[in-house]
Design goal:
heterodimer, A: mainly alpha, ABC transporter involved in vitamin B12 uptake, BtuC, two-stranded antiparallel sheet, 14 helices, globular, B: alpha+beta, Immunoglobulin-like, 3-stranded mixed beta sheet
């Protein structure tokens, strides 16, 4: 077993674009749930809007990079309105059921064979990221960052991803410190109190839903960039629940919590996976196969989610007084 | 709450959780060891277990379509190079059989599993020979007849057939959703792990039948196992959480974690493949001009009888009245001398029993057992419950039947891989116009 290699792989996860995408999507959930108290179980749907909006406008309509990003964002705003209009006046668990249902509807629609020409159905789409890589300012070659060496393409994806995450974090921080953000927190604590102050609670909730959804959509685009492909199976309910685990790990009503949560999530997964695979290949563990070890990660995430919720609902960075539930 | 009792309670909760998963881990491999060997239903390769199939690098695949429509749930078998494996086409008609080595395989489509009215095109080879040409994938195409419908093409008969199938599907959904609704009504918990209770019933029955038990006994034991899982869940997890005063949203997220963990514990031992229960292929019965499979009809009768019995128990017995009282107002019920905790424990047990029965019927309806079969209908169960009105038992029944019929009837016009979309959409639309659901009460909407 090569411990150094496993450790390096785990450290590499800290700056991987997938971690950035998870962090960004979880930040969107923090806006929804942590700050506003909206129970969004359909963040995978927002990510799918980003991925498919971007990919389809590039492939089917030959849109340039920035137009494709814009189209994805518009899709996400429309999706947020469709979700919000029927449910934001209802109790929290209705929003939960409707968002999870809407995300699944989106997944069924991009998987159906009837739309194969546009969505690629179950096989998904690929080869739509040329516009992004054409913007790469780094000259060709390998870049050594100490613990990991990257090609110029990998470096470009990572720099973009983390710059975007940093930008979004600053924006969310500023928003939440503004009077607007204080109203959101007020809605989380007591909707009726805010309403009695003359605020339009429905409009504030809708704005929060749209902003969190946009973060999810940007994350969806980021998620596809390193792979240059999008597959519908990736946008199932499990993705949403992974994002929730990241959010709860880091702390739900914090800005850096979701990002930190995503880093911890991926480092822990990579470490355990590496150690398990190593142990299986060197014959130390014989009672499970590598396929079964791959399933263990889901079991681990599930148990971690339960334990977190029961014993430390505020996460690593959170403050217990700022929980969106009691 | 002082810190010492709190710590004690937390430790007890942790221990209970650990014991729950330990129990799952210990019981499952034993049943699997005995399972595939003796099972008449599992026809996967003799050497590698169902889970191992995913390890093979090479695969034979194809998509089964009839007049542009995907054909799901058709069994396809591959034999050759000392290996044999089988699979069932997915909702999109796609199928893949993973094989250990490149070589030549005989691929056979089981014509008896083709849906009614669909036949192989005249002159189509079956079985056909597939040879790998230095690729990791090989394709096999089975041309189906140009929508050659054997009988019953007119809309009326089609509609009648779909209505009966939909009623059967709706009633099996109702078994699960009535349990979910009872749990929601008495504890306020939206249980995302209910789908896994559905899966558990079918998986337990598969293992028990594989051990050579007769079908009725395997089904009975699996249902009892489902009830036991409900009882243990409440005793080990939900009751301690309620006593800690955990919030409803926190408990909802705990149930999501539980669902993830249990689903993949099941996959760990059951594997990713689709397996069949004994008697999964049943003859068609003709009722006048309408033909329906025997299993679907039996499932309809069984669920109708069970739901009728449950309705009687709820309306006529002391326990049923106590349950409805707790659902209505727990504090008042408790003050009237009703043992609320006991009622909730019984509700969880009954919910587990009903979900397990629903799971077995769902396995016959699809047909097939897989580790994520419960997850696939979880949202339809939610749709049924929301449609009828959260927390109302008879609303859940009505809502589920509507969802079941809608799903089946919509396949006349909609692609088969979109049939769940329609049901989820009407749920959202109903929330727009009547958020409390069909039989719900206004004050619950909040």
């Amino acid at each position: 077993m090569d411990f150094l290699n496993i450790l390096n792989g785990a450290l590499g996860e800290i700056i991987s674009p997938t971690t950035a995408a998870y962090g960004l999507a979880a930040l969107g959930l923090a806006v929804h749930f942590g700050y506003t108290g909206l129970l969004n179980f359909g963040q995978a749907g927002f990510m799918a809007m980003g991925a498919y909006g971007f990919a389809i406008s590039t492939l089917t309509f030959n849109a340039p990079f920035w137009v494709a990003v814009l189209v994805a964002l518009v899709c996400s705003v429309v999706f947020a309105f469709l979700l919000g209009i029927p449910t934001l006046r209802l109790r929290a668990d209705y929003l939960a059921i409707v968002t999870i249902a809407a995300a699944e509807i989106a997944r069924y629609v991009v998987t159906t064979n009837r739309l194969t020409d546009v969505t690629g159905s179950a096989g998904g789409l690929n080869g739509f990221t040329n516009g992004f890589y054409a913007l790469n300012p780094f000259p060709e070659g390998r870049y050594d960052l100490g613990f990991v060496a990257l090609s110029h393409r990998d470096l470009w994806v990572r720099v973009t991803a983390w710059a975007l995450v940093a930008l979004c974090c600053v924006l969310v921080l500023l928003l939440m410190r503004s009077p607007w953000g204080r109203v959101l927190k007020g809605i989380r604590e007591d909707e009726n109190a805010v309403r009695s102050l003359g605020k339009n609670v429905y409009a504030y909730k809708m704005q929060a839903l749209v902003i969190g959804g946009i973060l999810g959509t940007l994350a969806g685009i980021l998620f596809t960039l390193p792979r240059s492909s999008v597959q519908p199976a990736n946008y199932g309910t499990e993705l949403t629940f992974f994002l929730w685990t990241c959010l709860l790990l880091g702390g739900m009503a914090t800005v850096l919590g979701p990002v930190l949560g995503a880093m911890i999530f991926w480092v822990v997964l990579s470490l355990t996976q590496g150690l398990l695979y190593g142990a299986i290949e060197s014959g130390i563990i014989t009672f499970i196969t590598t396929t079964q070890a791959g399933q263990l990660r889901y079991i681990m995430v599930g148990i971690a989610l339960m334990l977190l919720m029961i014993f430390r609902p505020q996460g690593v960075l959170g403050n217990k007084r700022e929980l969106a539930f009691t | 709450m002082g810190s010492v009792p709190r710590l004690v309670r937390s430790t007890w909760l942790l221990a209970a959780l650990a014991a729950f998963f330990a129990a799952l881990l210990v019981t499952a491999p034993a049943s699997q060891a005995a399972g595939p060997a003796a099972s008449p239903a599992s026809q996967t390769s003799p050497a590698p277990g169902p889970g191992d199939q995913e390890n093979f690098r090479f695969s034979i695949n194809g998509v089964l379509r009839n007049a542009g429509q995907p054909v799901p749930d058709v069994t396809i078998r591959a034999t050759g190079e000392g290996f044999s494996g089988e699979t069932v086409t997915s909702a999109s008609g796609a199928w893949t059989i993973r094989v250990p080595v490149q070589g030549t395989y005989q691929v056979e489509l089981d014509e008896s599993t083709l849906p009614e009215g669909v036949v192989l095109a005249p002159g189509a080879q079956n079985p056909r020979t597939v040879t790998f040409a230095n690729t990791s994938n090989a394709g096999a195409v089975f041309p189906l007849g140009e929508g050659i419908v054997v009988r019953g093409a007119n809309l009326g008969e089609q509609l009648a057939e779909r209505l009966i199938a939909g009623l059967s599907f709706g009633l099996l959904l109702a078994l699960a959703s009535v349990g979910l609704s009872l749990i929601f009504g008495t504890t306020g918990l939206t249980n995302f792990a209910h789908g896994e209770m559905v899966t558990l019933g079918a998986v337990l029955m598969f293992f028990l039948a594989g051990m050579g038990l007769p079908v009725w006994l395997a089904a009975a034991l699996a249902i009892i196992g489902g009830g036991l899982s409900g009882y243990l869940q409440d005793a080990g997890l939900w009751r301690p959480l309620r006593q800690r005063g955990s919030g409803l949203i926190a408990m909802m997220i705990v149930s999501i974690g539980l669902a993830l963990a249990v689903r993949y514990v099941i996959q760990l031992f059951f594997g990713g493949a689709i397996q069949q229960l004994p008697g999964a292929q049943s003859p068609q019965i003709s009722l006048g001009a309408v033909s329906i499979s025997q299993n679907t009809l039996q499932s309809l009768v069984i669920s109708a009888v069970v739901i009728g019995l449950l309705g009687f128990l709820l309306l006529r017995t002391r326990l049923g009245k106590a349950t409805r009282a707790v659902a209505d107002n727990p504090a008042l019920a408790s003050a009237s001398g009703i043992d609320v905790d006991n009622v909730i424990r019984i509700v969880w047990t009954v919910g587990g029993l009903l979900a397990a029965l629903g799971g077995i019927l769902w396995a016959y309806y699809r047909p097939g057992v897989s580790f994520n079969m419960g997850q696939q209908i979880l949202l339809l169960i939610f749709a049924g419950v929301t449609l009828g009105g959260l927390g109302t038992v008879f609303g859940a029944l009505v809502g589920s039947v509507i969802v079941g019929i809608f799903v089946e009837v919509s396949t006349i016009w909609l692609e088969a891989d979109l049939k769940f979309v329609g049901a989820l959409l009407i749920m959202i639309v109903v929330l727009l116009f009547r958020p409390q659901g069909i039989l719900g009460r206004r004050e619950r909407v909040g």
